[in-house]
Amino acid sequence: MTHPHAPKPVRPPRVVLGWRESVALPDLGLAAVKAKVDTGARSSALHVDQQWRFVEAGAPWVGFRLSPGLGGAARDVVAPVLDEREVTDSGGRRTLRVFLRTTLRLAGIEREIEINLSDRRGMLFPMLLGRTALARAFTVDPARSYLHGRPPQGDAPASPSG
């Protein structure tokens, strides 16, 4: 039990993000990905062109192809599967998606997040950064964008949707 006059623990201030930011996923070899910061989405999603499953040392793994729009030439990446869960998209459609754990680097903060692999072809942002990745470290100012640096130009498909 804490003493009633004991000082409250000091939490570090939360970093303010805009509604869109450039993020790095260094474990996946991605230095700058355009991400829509979406507090309405529980989980984070990353666009992949293809994905396939395999078993390594008795554990489930996923292989996936990252498109040239995510910085450089198309390349294949592999990662251990964390989980498989149903996700409901903004249109109300439920799909079973593979989740993995990876490092997010944003605004000088590095943290482990869960991310699902999705077909976001035709979306303006190849990544959606959901509220579980933001919790306890970030707050969002929806009137601002790219507060922590802009991504390189020409790295996302053109589309009005997000």
Automatic annotation (TrEMBL):
Superkingdom of the organism of origin: Bacteria
Any one GO molecular-function label of the UniProt entry: peptidase activity
Keyword Metal-binding: no
Protease in keyword set: yes
The entry's keywords: Hydrolase, Protease
Top-level taxonomy: Bacteria, Pseudomonadati, Pseudomonadota, Gammaproteobacteria, Lysobacterales
Name of this chain's protein: ATP-dependent zinc protease
GO BP terms: proteolysis
Pfam families: Zn_protease
Domain (Retropepsin-like aspartic endopeptidase): residue spans on this chain: 16-150
InterPro entries xrefs: Asp_endopeptidase, Peptidase_aspartic_dom_sf
